[in-house]
Design brief:
This protein is mainly alpha-helical. It has helices at about 5-40, 45-75.
Length: about 80
């Protein structure tokens, strides 16, 4: 495999991991909020709170992944 294809697949993997990370963080936050709402009968308060926490966690994960990739590319350049 030539280096262009390898770089393409690495970038695709990075973007895919960012997307999956955001979706999972939001999904877990929504699920947890809905469970707490059903247990405590407080609809929709916990849903909204944990939705916002999930969104924040998803964007934090994107920031961490992007920072890791930037550091990796800075280390690779001579």
């Amino acid at each position: 495999m030539n280096s262009n294809n390898r770089q393409l697949f690495q970038n695709l993997a990075m973007v895919s991991s960012m997307g999956i990370s955001v979706v999972l963080a939001i999904g877990i936050g929504v699920w947890f909020g809905l469970m707490l709402d059903s247990w405590f009968d407080t609809k929709p308060w916990f849903f909204y709170i944990f939705l916002l926490i999930g969104i924040a966690a998803g964007f934090k994960n994107v920031y961490v992944i992007a920072g890791r990739e930037i550091r990796k590319s800075d280390d690779a350049t001579p």
